[in-house]
Amino acid sequence: MRVVHVDAEVLAHKRSGGHHLVTLVAPGVAELHRPGTFAELTLGGPHSDRLTRHAFWILRANPSGTYGGTVELLVSERGPGTRWLVRAGPGTTVPLTGPLGRPVARPKEPVPGPGVALEVGGAATLPLAARLKERGCVVHVLLGARTEARLHGALDLRRAARTVQVVTGDGSVGRRGELAEVLGGVLDQQAPDVVYAAGPVPLLRTAAAEAEARGAWSQLAYAGPMPCGTGHCQGCLVPVVGEDGIARHARACVDGPVFRGDRVRWDEVGR
């Protein structure tokens, strides 16, 4: 895929529960975005040399409009870089590179398939669900968060998915529990051909195992650190098994971030 580097401008910002929605004017990036690709931002303004770059899923991409192409990011305030971004006023310039990575491989024929997302993983799931619906697929979504405030995308996903089930750790909305605990039962009910998931490694490991146990194919969006986004720093290595059966390491930012679940050596991730 072609990659664009732009000095994006902050257009709008609003709070969404425990997250922030940041809209950036990024001509060229919105036109090229596909579900599963991401953007790398250099955060911090004058102090950006002290911070690493940050990878963000693209929640929405609008190729046209009054301000040209725009992208919307779902941001959780986790450190000095994201703190700077959610406080940046309109017109603030943010160096942005994207779209990066390989998009989700979508089925050629309509198939039933659930999407599974935890908190900010919903930013990867929402555009995918919309594309799958366009292809005639029956989409079911299992969306989780620690609390209701950390939940995002349930209403928007209902426009694309036939069903949306919500799980929260404290039971403040939907079913109480953890996504990994309830996933198996949900897959038994839906008998999917493919499982898509976005979230932390423990959730992806479970999704891969549960899908394989039911003979389903899985596409999993890895959300670990990806410092450079270009594959040069080797800071996002994921242990995999190639189609030739040989174990090797893949770079999440260029060989992923979406991987087939049965190709990742999950027990070795993060070691």
In short:
The protein contains seven helices and 15 strands. With 271 residues, the chain is an alpha/beta fold.
Structure notes:
This protein is of the alpha/beta class and 271 residues long. It folds into two domains: 4-100, Elongation Factor Tu (Ef-tu), domain 3 (Beta Barrel); 112-268, 3-Layer(aba) Sandwich (Rossmann fold), CATH 3.40.50.80. Helix content is 23%, strand content 35%. The chain has seven helices and 15 strands. It has helices spanning 29-32, 80-87, 122-134, 154-160, 179-190, 201-213, 252-255, and strands at 4-16, 19-25, 38-41, 54-62, 70-75, 93-100, 112-118, 138-145, 163-168, 175-176, 194-199, 217-222, 237-241, 247-251, 258-260. α3 (122-134) runs parallel beside α4 (154-160).
Gyration radius, to the nearest Å?
A: 18 Å
Q: The biggest beta sheet, please?
A: 7 strands, mixed
Question: Roughly how many Å apart are the termini?
Answer: 30 Å
CATH topology of the largest domain: Rossmann fold
What is the average of the pLDDT values? 88
- Give the amount of beta strand, in percent: 35-45%
* Number of helices, counting only DSSP H or I runs of 4 residues or more: 7
Low-pLDDT residue intervals, each spanning 5 or more residues: none
CATH superfamily of the largest domain: Nucleotide-binding domain of ferredoxin-NADP reductase (FNR) module
Q: What is the general shape?
A: globular
CATH architecture label of the largest domain = 3-Layer(aba) Sandwich
Helix content class: 10-25%
- Going across the biggest sheet, name each strand in turn: 10-9-8-7-11-12-15
Overall tally of structural domains: 2
**What string, H for helix and E for strand, traces the elements in order?**
EEHEEEHEEHEHEEHEHEEEHE
Number of strands: 15
Quaternary structure state of the chains depicted: single chain
